[in-house]
């Protein structure tokens, strides 16, 4: 794929965001010789893994004037992936023996992930590329093919304007809450919150709480809240009838289909006709893709939570390779995917790897959208790669000539899903894939030598 038409070129690149995706994008861009500025509006690198007890002024996260709290982590959060598959491919997420203040568990607490990302930034010299407390407020293309980036320092009035050859958007997608539309909610007298603003269970002590959603967060938070609440009711859009009703192992958790309506006497009616009198509704209903700073003259849109059109979830064909996105996909181990997407972008920007023509990329996007439609998937599922994550990874590996994914990774993911469904309450502490853990560590040792 190396281009012999265009000479290898170094670019000046803006990376927006210093979470896992921005840090690895910066590293890959620099490895290819590009100059990089990373803009980060937070006080430290790590993105969503920078836990804060602070919450937003609007517990639903809808007020456009609220001060955004980026992180969606609650205090007790442990990873939902084993650390072996979670880490970057060439920087294993292993226990640091020389630091006693680490969490050695296979599914560690959030602080361990932040430390890992901070180690990564330090070891690869990324910190010096990052401008902390600097928010990007505008990105747009100007004549001559350059990108104008306007940024503002926290507490500062003045806006800085700079020009770059390319922009890589790495702002994450777990900070702009999506909430469920519920008939009657305007007259319902209870309190509402989005899981984005959940930190601790104590406000729910002795309360009757309805949680909407069936993701990992809904299940984890539901179990935690059940430790203090009187009753917890989970409302799910897509679950089998066999899992409805009182949940095994808990005398105060029930699962229902979606909410039909809520009423001014405080009751919540579910689609199966069951009714509860509740004091809280928590929306564990996910997030929106949101790029308020991005001006592409309508070329890229986020309609119905599809960022598009994008070639392979990364490049808008019309603006490629000058604008790209890392980290939009979900339902796959994120860090290794971010790493490969970043390698692809970095090598494309220096002409080492060539993209197909715009027409070919657009054709690919159209085919992809048609296939989603044919299989009945709504456009908000566009970036869900669960069913083809290894195919996607293999494709990225081929594009940038990276070493292939190790076999144990795929096997470990299969074992993980099996364990998750067999032990939904204890999968973080009990497993049966010790042989794969051993293989992973043998592999890591080779890399760390
Ligand atoms: P983020 O980590 O969100 O980083 C984006 C950065 O961009 C932030 O630092 C933000 O301040 C900055 N930014 C945003 N807008 C601007 C702007 N305009 N100007 C400047 N800077 C800006 N993944 C796993 O692998 N394992 C897990 O167990 C796991 N658990 C999760 C649990 C929860 C509750 C959530 C919400 C996510 C979880 N994830 C997990 C997914 C996690 O989001 C990814 O692992 C990954 O950390 C996302 O990295 P990112 O860099 O794409 O985004």
UniProtKB/TrEMBL annotation:
EC assignment: 1.-.-.-
Keyword Flavoprotein belongs to the record: yes
Name of the protein described by the UniProt record: Flavin-containing monooxygenase
InterPro entries registered for this protein in UniProt: FAD/NAD-bd_sf (IPR036188), Flavin_mOase (IPR000960), Flavin_mOase-like (IPR020946), FMO-like (IPR050346)
Entry similarity comment: Belongs to the FMO family.
Species annotation: Rhamnella rubrinervis
Cofactor(s) the protein needs: FAD
SUPFAM superfamilies named among the record's database cross-references: FAD/NAD(P)-binding domain (SSF51905)
GO molecular function terms attached to this record: flavin adenine dinucleotide binding; N,N-dimethylaniline monooxygenase activity; NADP binding
A Pfam family annotated for this UniProt entry: FMO-like
Enzyme class: oxidoreductase
This protein's UniProt keywords: FAD, Flavoprotein, Monooxygenase, NADP, Oxidoreductase
């Amino acid at each position: 794929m190396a281009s012999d038409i265009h000479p290898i070129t170094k670019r000046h690149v803006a990376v927006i965001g210093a979470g896992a995706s921005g840090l690895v994008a910066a590293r890959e861009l620099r490895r290819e010789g590009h100059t990089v500025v990373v803009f980060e509006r937070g006080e430290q690198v790590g993105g969503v893994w920078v836990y804060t007890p602070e919450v937003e002024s609007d517990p639903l996260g809808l007020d456009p004037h609220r001060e955004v709290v980026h992180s969606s982590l609650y205090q007790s959060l442990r990873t939902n992936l084993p650390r072996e598959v979670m880490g970057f491919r060439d920087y294993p997420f292993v226990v640091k023996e020389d630091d006693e203040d680490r969490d050695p568990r296979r599914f560690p607490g959030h602080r361990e992930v932040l430390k890992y990302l901070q180690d990564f930034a330090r070891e690869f010299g990324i910190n010096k590329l990052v401008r902390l407390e600097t928010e990007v407020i505008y990105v747009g293309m100007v004549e001559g093919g350059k990108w104008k980036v306007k940024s503002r320092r926290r507490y500062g009035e003045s806006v800085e304007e700079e020009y770059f050859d390319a922009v890589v958007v790495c702002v994450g997608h777990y900070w702009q809450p999506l909430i469920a539309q519920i008939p009657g909610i305007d007259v319902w007298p209870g309190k509402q919150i989005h899981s984005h603003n959940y930190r601790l269970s104590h406000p729910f002590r002795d309360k009757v709480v309805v949680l909407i959603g069936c993701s990992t967060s809904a299940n984890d938070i539901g179990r935690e809240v059940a430790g203090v609440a009187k009753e917890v009711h989970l409302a799910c859009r897509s679950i089998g009838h066999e899992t409805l009703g009182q949940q095994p192992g808990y005398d105060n958790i029930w699962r229902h289909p979606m909410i039909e309506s809520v009423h001014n006497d405080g009751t919540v009616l579910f689609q199966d006709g069951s009714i509860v009198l509740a004091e809280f509704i928590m929306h564990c209903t996910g997030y929106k893709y949101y790029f308020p700073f991005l001006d592409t003259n309508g070329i890229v849109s986020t309609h119905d939570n599809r960022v598009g059109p994008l070639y392979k979830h990364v490049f808008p064909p019309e603006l490629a390779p000058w604008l790209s996105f890392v980290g939009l996909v979900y339902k796959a181990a994120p860090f290794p995917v971010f790493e490969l997407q970043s390698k692809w972008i970095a090598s494309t920007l220096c002409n080492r790897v060539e993209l197909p023509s715009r027409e070919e990329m657009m054709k690919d996007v159209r085919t992809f959208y048609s296939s989603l439609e044919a299989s009945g998937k709504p456009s908000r599922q566009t970036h869900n790669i669960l069913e083809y994550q290894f195919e996607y990874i293999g494709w990225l590996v081929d594009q940038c000539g990276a070493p292939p994914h190790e076999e144990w990774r795929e096997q470990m993911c299969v074992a993980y899903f099996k364990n998750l469904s067999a032990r939904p309450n204890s999968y973080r502490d009990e497993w049966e894939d010790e042989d794969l853990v051993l293989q992973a560590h043998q592999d890591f040792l080779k890399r760390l030598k």
